[in-house]
Amino acid sequence: MQIRVDTYAGHRGMPMPQRFRLGRSRIGIVETLDQWFGPDYRYIKVKGDDGATYILRVHDGHGHWELTMFKSPRVRSFPHPSAFGRRRH
């Protein structure tokens, strides 16, 4: 899921997340828990000011940010999309 992220220049000038928008919510980053590199992406595990844990993925060459994982003590699970029925056009 693509997200909009406000960043600051971290170590070696790499963009690090300060806050991001998830739907209508604005989540502040209170702690960077981990960071690792993939072939084309960098992954950053953070704790939000809402108490949830997120894994964000950024393509440093393009600056595209995505939410790849979300874990909250308040939310047990999301309903499967089929629970909402199909849209008819």
Report the total helices.
0
Oligomer: single chain
Shape: globular
Give me the strand/helix succession: EEEEEE
Strand neighbour order, sheet with most strands: 1-2-3-4-5-6
Query: How much helix is in the residues?
Result: under 10%
Q: How many domain units? A: 1
Segments where pLDDT lies below 50 for 5+ residues? Answer: none
Mean pLDDT across all amino acids: 84
If you compute it from the alpha carbons, what radius of gyration comes out, rounded to the nearest whole angstrom?
Answer: 15 Å
Strand content: over 45%
Query: How many DSSP-defined strands?
Result: 6
Structural class: mainly beta
- Main β-sheet: number of strands, strand sense, barrel status? 6 strands, antiparallel
Provide an overview of this structure.
This protein is mainly beta. It has one domain. Helices cover 0% and strands 55% of the residues. Strands 1-2-3-4-5-6 form a six-stranded antiparallel sheet, with no helix packed on it. A hairpin with a 4-residue loop joins strand 3 and strand 4. The two termini are 24 Å apart. The mean pLDDT is 84.
